[in-house]
Amino acid sequence: MSCLILVKKEAVDAFRTYRFFIMGIIFLLFGLLSPALAKLLPELIKSLGTGDTALVIELPTPTVADSWLQFFKNHSQMTLIIFVITFGNSLGKELTNGTLIFLVTKGISRNAAMLAKVIYQACLWFLGLTVSFMVNYVYNIVLFPGENQPMSTLLFYLFQLWLFGLLFILISNLGQVLLPKTLGGLLSGFLALILLFVMNISSELAKINPMRLMDVSAEGINAGIQFSQVQGALLVTLAICILVTTAALFRFKQIPIY
Question: Ramachandran region of residue 157, left (φ > 0), alpha (ψ -120 to 50) or beta?
Fold first, then answer.
């Protein structure tokens, strides 16, 4: 019960500091921009090739798959980075300002305090992606009428994107109790990203690298994704999420907040 109360507190705090509205605008913006960019970008590139001395630029006709590729690319890069920056110091700020002292003295456990932040951020990440997904889907119907949008495949890609984002949310919270509190979340996320890129050097490790969850292709969208292709990456990502959460809870109990 105390965890649910703290989740509500996190939501109220996000409203008061406008973080909720900032992220809402970003999710809506990319939901609208992805189809528009996929539709108009080829035309813009072709316009650069006009004139007597211009190069002839041959581009394929944009499809709904291009729109979804743009959607997943935007959210796995720009939106996730903005999200981590926006919420990457929420726990560290409370530790630095000493606002957790009041909650702990009222009998609320440290586990509940940390899990409330994780639950709220994970739910907001899920809600934002879902709304953006729906906006993108409807806009695709307008810009690419009659083209098939394989819902089951797209939803599975969306789940992978959410899970990848959840991994960095958890890593960010761990960083805030391990590294300097004001920058720990961002530093831990940056270090984790470097580690994932290093893993990709090995072909064997690349198969189970969480970054494999971001390998969205037009072929995968059109032909359908095979679970066996990402099974290893999914299991490793889930395992890391559990380990990171456990480590963060353990470390959080050791930090003096009085």
Answer: alpha
